[in-house]
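Entry under discussion copied across for reference:
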Amino acid sequence: MAAAVVAIAAAARRRVLQAFREVGATAPARAQPVREFDRMAQRQLRHLIANGLVRETNPGLYYLDEVALYAWERRQRRIAAAIGVALIIIAGVMTFVASRSR
């Protein structure tokens, strides 16, 4: 269930990012009004704005900050890698402890 929600949110985020790219709103000088999105995409848009990935230049005009998005994506990948390593270590320790208790 959780994986499905994550996948739906990721798809919604991709739709929002693609919408900005399609209209060329990837720089402050090319900021555009935000189009209407479905509920999940609206939520992702709010998240992108809150994290500084989509920025408002003038009231109602927004653009996708590709540089900030790239940095955010790198940070997300690092966090995911660190979690993966931690899980592998925990699994190894648990396996070791279980084998020693027999």
Q: What stands out?
A: The longest helix spans residues 66-100.
